[in-house]
């Protein structure tokens, strides 16, 4: 398998242009510009052991990336193990899904006004009870739990499910959507709900990674792969509300992906952020403090539309908690999470968890 420094096979990128091929060393690996073939990268002896596929990489200079490279000229170097097979439930051999799904369409037409829920349920025949989906003609490479913190946004949830399910099915991942609803009238604790989603999802299946997804963000491009990242991945890089620009470098809010092991390593999200703001910046601090870094796809792929909503009441102590957060990394998070699972149901499009949160004791 070809693996460039600092990347998994999902993150290694080769950029193709119509100029002569040139090579440039980058602090995190090798970028290749020009007409690209398998043999040009691996040499003729290995020409059958790699695949060039659609993809993207994290790059802090998003405007330059959008200017210099069309998404149609972006490729990933694949693995030499693409012909691997696995046993399916009926005992036959089924090939693993390709690294990059073949049916991606790129930019999507986003619908902010979906049909009635009953119509959506009848339309999405491939979605199983509880919001589960997986490819039927190959074995998925990624088992992903999508966690949506939720309260009082039924229209937003309906719009998200309507846009998200078809995209995830095309991406050929094995996924399940969990909607974690906070019971009660106290301030909304988004981060704590995501911790609950992590814990409860693992009671269902051994998910390999988690995507934490705000209910008001609709993806605009299915090449923004909801797969398991090598490093924590900020997914919602370019949002229409912010004129498709990243507000600041350490942003980890909106939609983010992280592996099961990494989430456990950093002790999940903080539980102290009641009300709007602060929890994502605290998470970014946790990521960096544990030797990880935030990765991103290019802004011309990681695009979202935001649904309009009334802004939550801000947490007046968010800056204070951010300043003192490092002292609580080991004690505030999954390690002191307390909640009551009030109800759990599995309608067609998602697994619903109604939870009552217990404020953590000051540490």
Topology:
Elements: E1 13-15, E2 22-26, E3 29-33, H1 38-42, E4 52-54, H2 62-68, E5 74-77, E6 85-87, E7 93-95, H3 117-123, E8 132-133, E9 143-150, H4 154-170, E10 174-182, H5 190-204, E11 209-213, E12 217-219, E13 233-234, E14 238-239, E15 255-259, H6 260-265, H7 279-289, E16 295-296, E17 303-306, H8 318-323, E18 339-345, E19 351-357
Parallel strand pairs: 9-10, 9-11, 10-19, 13-16, 14-17
Antiparallel strand pairs: 1-5, 2-3, 4-5, 6-7, 8-10, 11-15, 12-17, 13-15, 18-19
Strands, count: 19
Spatial separation of the terminal alpha carbons: 47 Å
Label the overall shape.
Answer: globular
Portion in helices: 10-25%
Short précis:
The chain is α/β, with parallel strands linked by helices and 363 residues long.
């Amino acid at each position: 398998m070809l693996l460039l420094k600092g990347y998994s096979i999902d993150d290694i990128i080769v950029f193709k242009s119509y100029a002569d091929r040139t090579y440039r060393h980058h602090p995190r690996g090798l970028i290749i510009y020009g007409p690209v073939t398998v043999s040009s990268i691996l040499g003729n002896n290995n020409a059958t052991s790699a695949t060039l596929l659609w993809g993207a990489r994290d790059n802090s200079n998003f405007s330059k990336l959008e200017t210099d490279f069309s998404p149609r000229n972006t490729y990933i170097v694949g693995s030499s193990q693409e012909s691997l097979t696995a046993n399916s439930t009926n005992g036959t051999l089924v090939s693993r899904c390709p690294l990059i799904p073949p049916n991606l369409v790129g930019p999507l037409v986003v619908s902010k006004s979906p049909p009635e829920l009953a119509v959506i349920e009848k339309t999405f025949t491939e979605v199983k009870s509880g919001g589960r989906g997986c490819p039927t003609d190959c074995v998925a490479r990624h088992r992903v739990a999508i966690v949506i913190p939720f309260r009082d946004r039924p229209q937003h949830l309906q719009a998200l499910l309507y846009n998200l399910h078809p995209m995830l099915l095309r991406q050929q991942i094995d996924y399940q959507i969990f909607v974690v609803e906070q019971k009660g009238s106290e301030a909304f604790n988004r981060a704590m709900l995501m911790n609950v989603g992590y814990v409860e999802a693992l009671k269902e299946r051994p998910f390999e990674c988690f995507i934490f997804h705000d209910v008001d963000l609709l993806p605009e491009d299915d090449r923004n792969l909801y797969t398991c990242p090598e490093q924590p991945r900020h997914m919602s890089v370019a949002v229409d509300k912010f004129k498709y620009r990243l507000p600041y470098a350490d942003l980890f809010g909106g939609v983010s992906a992280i592996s099961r092991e990494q989430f456990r390593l950093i002790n999940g999200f903080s539980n102290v952020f009641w009300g709007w703001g602060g929890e994502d910046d605290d998470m970014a601090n946790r990521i960096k403090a544990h030797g990880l870094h935030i990765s991103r796809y290019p802004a011309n792929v990681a695009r979202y539309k935001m649904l309009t909503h009334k802004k939550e009441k801000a947490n007046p102590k968010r800056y204070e908690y951010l300043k003192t957060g490092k002292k609580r990394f080991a004690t505030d998070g999954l390690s002191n999470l307390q909640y009551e699972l009030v109800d759990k149901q599995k309608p067609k499009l998602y697994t619903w968890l109604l939870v009552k949160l217990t404020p953590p004791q000051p540490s």
